[in-house]
């Protein structure tokens, strides 16, 4: 589809990088669509799509929002179910989509200024800010965010995404179907996120277990039931996006107006919500920009790079006291937007983002192995540009752990925050240093 079908927002990537923000473990319902490599929209090199040839889509309750991005522009449009909005009101609906985008991506916040402020206060952040630009916090729907992060317990992005997709497919009727923008003959069907009333019935837990949710199945059903039972009063109300929200969903949104501690206390009442999950929800859907969700990975960052005293005996017991110490440490460095800064640093330290932001050729295969031949046809949900990171470091493919938040395999091809900081005095550019390290690592592996 030609780009002139899209509306535009002048927005440089340092203010918003879709390739990072939509893949770093905040939201799990965005679909990434790419053309085949021989498509006319592909880049001249033929090795990867051009920025505007990648489309991101999400299904809201009354429309599907489609996004593309170039270095200085965000392109957007909406797809509506039949019957299509009359032309006389289409302009108003497009204006609603624009307002939703501004709210969802919090575009009123100047991210470039925040990066400069953090870099001035923090030499660690300054060492990698240029590579990991454009990572901001989404302002998500609290109900969807709550359920998604109940699914996140001992989990990774790939599995969470499948769970959330299954929730939508099995508990929310399809809104519309639309042809794939790049693959002729392929049609994509979109489901909104189900409301609390759809997940509250007693049989939901058993069915979710059959869909692979494990112990999280009962957590989701019981949380939905608590919301419906305690906040069923009142009739559904429509929002600006023709979105009829249930009373329990509106109650969750009201938590945004509470103090952080009071809103956290309300969230901790739900089954399957501990301190970290509650803090993720506070940060990503309830405007609590100072909150830093802490797990063992974030704790290790604080110990390695910010002088936090290490616990004895290896892996720490994340007590409330230790959790608060890590929070206080990061808040003392970054201030009111500590949660935002933490998300950039967390993403940068993931090994799955080790090549993000580097203009380097693909890694050579190890000796005795030939690269896998890529399929000519691209699936509807391919990752491009960066691999999908886990919420917490995933298990090694050679040594699996029952918990996804324990250890990652040492990867000589990766560059951590420590390595970036150690080499800031090198006369080579960052890209050249990484190329040099990759070449040295490759030879060591032969």
Automatic annotation (TrEMBL):
Biased composition (Low complexity): 377-386
Ranges of residues in domain HhH-GPD: 151-349
UniProt GO BP: base-excision repair, AP site formation; nucleotide-excision repair
Chain positions covered by the region annotation Disordered: 361-446
Residues in the signal sequence: none
Keywords: DNA damage, DNA repair, Glycosidase, Hydrolase, Lyase, Multifunctional enzyme, Nucleus
Single GO MF descriptor: damaged DNA binding
TM helices/strands, residue ranges: none
Biased composition regions of type Basic residues, renumbered to the chain: 434-446
A cellular component annotation (GO) from this entry: nucleus
Pfam families tied to this protein: HhH-GPD, OGG_N
Superkingdom of this protein's organism: Eukaryota
Top EC class, one word: lyase
Bias (Polar residues): 415-428
Predominant localisation class: nucleus
EC number: 4.2.99.18
Gene3D superfamilies assigned: 3.30.310.40, Helix-hairpin-Helix base-excision DNA repair enzymes (C-terminal), Hypothetical protein, domain 2
Residue stretches of biased makeup (Pro residues): 387-396
Catalytic activity: 2'-deoxyribonucleotide-(2'-deoxyribose 5'-phosphate)-2'-deoxyribonucleotide-DNA = a 3'-end 2'-deoxyribonucleotide-(2,3-dehydro-2,3-deoxyribose 5'-phosphate)-DNA + a 5'-end 5'-phospho-2'-deoxyribonucleoside-DNA + H(+)
Localization terms from the record: Nucleus
Family that this chain belongs to: Belongs to the type-1 OGG1 family.
This protein's name: DNA-(apurinic or apyrimidinic site) lyase
Organism the protein comes from: Agrocybe chaxingu
């Amino acid at each position: 589809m030609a780009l002139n079908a899209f509306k535009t927002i002048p927005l440089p990537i340092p203010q918003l990088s879709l390739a990072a923000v939509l893949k770093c473990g905040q939201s799990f319902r965005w679909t990434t669509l790419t053309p085949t490599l021989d498509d006319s929209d592909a880049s001249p090199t033929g090795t990867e799509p051009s920025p505007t040839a990648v489309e991101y889509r999400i299904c809201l309750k009354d429309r599907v929002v489609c996004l593309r991005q170039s270095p200085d522009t965000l392109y957007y449009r909406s797809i509506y179910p039949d019957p299509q909005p009359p032309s006389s009101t289409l302009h108003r609906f497009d204006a609603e989509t624009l307002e939703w985008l501004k709210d969802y991506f919090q575009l009123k916040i100047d991210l470039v200024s925040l990066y400069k402020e953090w870099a001035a206060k923090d030499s660690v952040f300054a060492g990698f800010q240029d590579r990991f630009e454009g990572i901001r916090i989404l302002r998500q729907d609290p109900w969807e965010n709550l359920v998604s992060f109940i699914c996140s317990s001992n989990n990774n992005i790939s599995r969470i995404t499948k769970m959330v997709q299954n929730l939508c497919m099995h508990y929310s009727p399809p809104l519309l179907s639309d042809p794939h923008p790049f693959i002729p003959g392929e049609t994509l069907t979109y489901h909104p996120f189900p409301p609390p009333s759809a997940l509250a019935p007693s049989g939901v837990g058993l069915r979710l277990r059959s869909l692979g949710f494990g112990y999280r199945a009962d957590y989701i059903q019981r949380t939905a039931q608590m919301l419906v039972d305690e906040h069923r009063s009142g009739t559904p109300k429509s929002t600006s996006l023709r979105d009829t929200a249930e009373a329990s969903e509106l109650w969750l949104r009201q938590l945004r107006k509470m103090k952080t501690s009071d809103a956290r206390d309300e969230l901790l009442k739900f089954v399957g919500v501990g301190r970290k999950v509650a803090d993720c929800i506070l940060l990503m859907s309830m405007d609590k920009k100072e909150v830093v969700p802490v797990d063992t990975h974030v704790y290790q960052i604080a110990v390695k790079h910010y002088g936090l005293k290490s616990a004895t005996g290896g892996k720490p017991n994340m007590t409330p006291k230790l959790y608060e110490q890590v929070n206080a440490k990061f808040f003392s460095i970054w201030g009111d937007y500590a949660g935002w800064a933490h998300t950039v640093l967390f993403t940068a330290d993931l090994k799955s983002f080790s090549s993000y932001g580097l203009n380097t050729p693909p890694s050579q295969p190890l000796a005795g192995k030939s690269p896998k031949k890529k399929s000519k046809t691209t699936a509807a949900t391919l990752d491009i540009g960066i691999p999908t990171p886990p919420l917490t470091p995933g298990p090694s493919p050679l040594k699996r752990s029952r918990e996804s938040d324990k250890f990652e395999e040492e990867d000589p091809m990766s560059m951590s925050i420590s390595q970036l900081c150690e080499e800031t005095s090198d006369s080579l550019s960052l890209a050249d240093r990484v190329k040099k390290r990759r070449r040295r690592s490759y030879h060591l592996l032969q």
